[in-house]
Amino acid sequence: MKTFTPKPADLTHDWYIVDATDVVLGRLATQVATLLRGKNKPTFAPHADSGNHVIVINAAKVALTGSKMGKELYSHSGRPGGLRRDSYAELMKKNPERIVIAAIKGMMPKNRLSKVQLDRLRVFAGAEHPHTPQKPQTFEITQVSQQAK
């Protein structure tokens, strides 16, 4: 059996829309990272860019579990003194898109291809987005309750 290598004609970039209302942040990030990489397609190859465009709406309504509201999100500009620390509680009020983007970025592989795939991610705090002409398909994230019965 030969190894399948997708040709450039096989690489299509579909549009998906994900509603983040009451979805746990980590579960949202893994599902969106899978869509961005194109792992849901039968033509997936780790070296080829077969990823999709993903729109995440209602980022302000994402669910944070545990004690994340007291923790901080760190980022660095690369310049001396460029460390930035913001608490999750502040970011949920001011810029909830940054929390979702950071979580999804952490789920992506650390290579050059992930930068190209992350450019196809669009995150919005509310329900409105300007990408309706692309006719995105809705992607439902099903969550299973982890409570013992």
TrEMBL record:
Composition-biased stretches (Polar residues): 134-149
Function summary: This protein is one of the early assembly proteins of the 50S ribosomal subunit, although it is not seen to bind rRNA by itself. It is important during the early stages of 50S assembly.
Name of protein: Large ribosomal subunit protein uL13
Gene: rplM
Gene source species: Bifidobacterium phasiani
Chain segments carrying region Disordered: 128-149
PANTHER family xref list: LARGE RIBOSOMAL SUBUNIT PROTEIN UL13M, RIBOSOMAL PROTEIN L13
Any one Gene Ontology cellular component term annotated for this protein: ribosome
Domain of life: Bacteria
